[in-house]
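For homework, think about our next protein:
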Amino acid sequence: MMIIGIDPGSRYCGYGLIQTEGFKVVAAGCDVIDVTRETTLGGRLRLLHSTLCKVLEEYHPDCAAVESMFFQKHIKSVFTLGHARGVILLALAQHDIPMLEYSPREVKKAVVGTGSASKAQVRYMIDQLYNLKASAHRDDAYDALAIATTHFNRVKWDKKK
């Protein structure tokens, strides 16, 4: 099974892919869709959609795990992130990819063991799990891989019941 994890963003959108066989992860990788070269929100959303569609067409994931919305002090940031999430959900729907959502606390708890873990701790654990030490990717990419890992763990434990 191929799982894509997505860490939504209106400037940098992380995505992580894990290929599983049974209860084992056999391949993992991550990257970031950088849309900062576009100056308008509409341009960034269009680029985010087209680039994510290319990723989905290249890897054909079986399912997607997306980070859910969380409270921020800046209301404008919340709305902008909501627009980006809408574009991401549209791309997944257009490719008939089932999607589940996980909160940032759920992801941190699943990967690090505590819901209050820092980004550095999440990155360290993903490095340990998938041996990505040489990777210079942004934290968004690691977060996306953590989201995919959270979903894999959920599926794995549900199958064992």
